[in-house]
Design goal:
362 residues; alpha/beta; six-stranded parallel sheet; binds N-carbamoyl-L-aspartate; binds zinc ion
Length: 362
């Protein structure tokens, strides 16, 4: 193997921020090898109106017109069934991201996952219109007696996913950035009745960094700290097994989440988020190569996500004239990427990767 045509690639979970950070980061979706990305709404303030979606999409498109940006709302009391219905019909949004309050960066406007019932009228419309519910699957620890911590928060969230699926079997739900073997098992279980060709309603994204990291790697290095945190060897193994399996419910969502260097290299209140966008495809390819599963790489990085999001021909047409190629060639990760005052340290800064991407006309 020296070259593979990946066709149209998709990263179904990106944080592109705004202002100077966005100008620095947004072009790196493409330079990292991604055609289509699904954009997170956790700006300050979060994206909860139609006008915000339109403005943010224009802002990103002006920076990087060759990339397709799929937009999302932030699940909150400000959303109404009418708004969702209207934005879905106009093709403005593809999903709604649910952040449990307090679990991660900019989640203070989020919701209580112990009780989703106030959002059921929204979920009904989403189910009807094919709008995806993206779950940040961590249960917030409110009281000490809950015994919730960053290690068990994802496993403790899983009953909420089970209940949502049983109450809305046709609602498409993605458990984002899965980090535990329990989560992988549950996604498989909820899909166990599916036969080839059936519509899939439960999916899971897997990041690049969680295929590399365990708890030790972030405990000693804040650059590797993100939410949900990387867990144990058995969890990493389950994630690698799921990603490389080719199973259609597992696909790529980098959760690339840049923070300026001065908010990462501190002793207190380290910001959660690992920046991987500038080499997203290359990081993942290296893992598939290592485990001799490169034949399943295109499923994970291109086909499965596009299929789950049910992207229509109109969206794909923009990308039909070119393909992303994975090339076996040394690729050094920059020590830092910078734009004036904004500096971001990428994952595995300074390391040599085995692969690089090229864009070629078909
Ligand atoms: C994300 C961010 O920085 O916006 N951080 C992270 O650790 N993943 C938020 C999120 O997706 O949880
Ligand atoms: Zn995220």
């Amino acid at each position: 193997m020296s070259e593979i045509n990946l066709g149209i690639t998709a990263d179904m979970h990106v944080h592109l921020r705004d202002g100077a950070m966005s100008k620095l980061i947004t072009p790196t979706v493409r330079s990292g090898g991604i055609s289509i990305c699904y954009v997170m709404p956790n700006l300050v303030p979060p994206i909860t109106t139609k006008q915000q979606v339109i403005n943010y999409h224009k802002q990103l498109n002006d920076i990087a017109p060759e990339t397709t940006f799929l937009m999302s709302f932030y699940l909150s009391k400000d959303l109404t069934p009418e708004l969702i219905s209207e934005c879905a019909d106009e093709g403005l949004i593809h999903g709604i991201k649910c952040y449990p309050a307090g679990v991660t960066t900019n989640s203070k406007y989020g919701v209580d996952p112990n009780d989703f019932s106030q959002f059921y009228p929204l979920f009904e419309v989403m189910e009807k219109k094919g709008i995806i519910l993206n779950l940040h699957g961590e249960k917030p620890g409110i009281e000490e007696k809950d015994e919730i911590n960053i290690i068990n928060a994802e496993s403790k969230f899983l009953p909420a996913l089970r209940k949502l699926h049983s109450d809305f079997p046709k609602l498409k739900i993605i458990l984002e950035h899965t980090t535990t073997s329990e989560a992988i098992e549950l996604v498989r279980e909820l899909n166990s009745d599916k036969k080839e060709g059936d519509d899939i309603t439960i999916g899971a994204t897997i990041t690049a960094h969680h295929l590399y990291l365990i708890i030790d790697n972030w405990a000693s290095n804040p650059i590797n700290y993100c939410k949900p945190v990387a867990k144990f060897h058995k969890d990493k193994k389950a994630l690698i097994d799921a990603a490389t399996s080719g199973e259609p419910w597992f696909f790529f969502g980098s959760d690339s989440a840049p923070h300026p260097i001065h908010k990462k290299q501190v002793h207190v209140d380290v910001c959660a988020g690992v920046y991987t966008q500038c080499n997203s495809v290359a990081y993942v390819a290296e893992i598939f190569d290592k485990y001799n599963k490169i034949e399943n790489f295109k499923k994970f990085i291109s086909d499965n996500g596009i299929k789950f999001y049910d992207l229509n021909e109109k969206i794909l047409a923009k990308h039909k004239g070119e393909s992303v190629w994975l090339i076996e060639r040394e690729n050094k990760v920059p020590e830092v990427i910078a734009n004036g005052d904004v500096e971001v340290v990428p994952f595995k800064a300074g390391d040599e990767l085995k692969y690089i991407v090229e864009w070629r006309k078909n």
